[in-house]
Amino acid sequence: MTTADVVIIGGGVVGSAAAWRLRHDGFTGRVVVVERDRSYARASSFLAMGGIRQQFGSSVCVRMVQHSVALWREFDERMRTSTHAPRAWFRERGYLFLADDTNADALTAREAAQAAAGASQRRLSVDEIGALVPGLMLDDIRFGLFGPEDGYANPREVLFGLRAAALAAGAEYVDDEVVEIDTRGGRVIGVTLADGGFVSAPIVVNAAGALAGRVARLAHVDVPVEPMRQLLFRCTLPRPWPSRFPMVIDPGGVHWRHDDALVPGDPDRIILAFTKWDEPAGENLACDDVRWENEFYPALVRRLPAAVDVSDVHGWAGHYEMTPDHNPVLGAHPGLGGFLVASGFSGHGLMMSPATGLVVSELVRLGESRTFDITPFAVDRFARGAFVRDGATI
Ligand SMILES: Cc1cc2nc3c(=O)[nH]c(=O)nc-3n(C[C@H](O)[C@H](O)[C@H](O)COP(=O)(O)OP(=O)(O)OC[C@H]3O[C@@H](n4cnc5c(N)ncnc54)[C@H](O)[C@@H]3O)c2cc1C
After folding, report:
1. Domain of 183, in residue numbers
2. Atom of ligand 1 nearest to the CA of 17
3. Looking at the structure, do residues 246 and 284 belong to the same domain, yes or no?
4. Which pTM value belongs to this model?
5. How sure is the predictor about 390, in pLDDT bands with cuts at 50, 70 and 90?
């Protein structure tokens, strides 16, 4: 048995950002992060695409990413420790949403919401798109919505950078699995570990990513987060590309970004995603290569004909941590004292993890989230029918 002031279940980008931020904000209590797999081979943070954008229909998402971008810009310097130098390399190349007849109205509506929320964005004409991303087939395109402060970073470098920074700041990581969240009188009192150990704590944070629903059941409460398989493919471009891609989002759903060579002479590659909205919920990390042949590749070549000869195709699967409205579950659980939830980011949790860390830090230290109004993300909103639908999940 050991005693902590805060136990964080899950040491992915969310749990690690929370642990780092608590210490950064001067919290002197004992912060214990319980992580079942230090290789992170199945963690969403390890398997993600690394996209970072402030293009969302809800103002709180816009603000959380704007706050986070300040850290992304300085991440490699600020997260450097005496033993670890991350190379997350935030490339501020933008997100370019392409509009055709099928989605122009929806994008126009989101553009207005984003403008009201203060997002950095520009509407591009077809000629401007052609100049920004040479080689795109634009015969059916009406306009583009471009976020110049958006971009992407290396997710694994982000993950291990945050973990190293949290450790250096004084958080402790325990290699184990939480198998029970112990409660008494309607409050958490600690967690039981698979090795039989017990960590007592008055505050437990559920940062278990796609498994947050399962972890909540260990405390006999409901958190509506389910894993949903998401595939990514990486491939080598047919020749060294003369320009760098922003995140390009085709109206049909396929989207891709550059995966720059880290060493001169390495291949010039891109990473692609194409969300399958009827993918059944459940844990499934099998890569379905048939989707490359039937969906990813044809859609890519239709939009970027010069990509016809891409090679070295490699795919993998990770889990989106889906909620019914594709927005996070963030805050104190109303049914259990001391139980905080930071999950359900539905495929956009990496980009806002610095802000999420701040939210958790304020909830622990101050008892409330002061920087961001997180009431739209309340755990019980689904039961109240208060869905946050911003149509911005890709
Ligand atoms: C293919 C793919 C592409 C994505 N692309 C993007 C993107 O472009 N931009 C973006 O912002 N986001 C993206 N995401 C989403 C992003 O990866 C997640 O929102 C984010 O990583 C969530 O971080 P996390 O720390 O909550 O979860 P995770 O990284 O999954 O970490 C949770 C951790 O909890 C641990 N855990 C679970 N249960 C227990 C237990 N009982 N005891 C101990 N430990 C436990 C797990 O081992 C895991 O390491 C993508 C996700 C996927 C799968």
Report:
1. 2-83+155-225+324-384
2. 25
3. yes
4. 0.98
5. confident
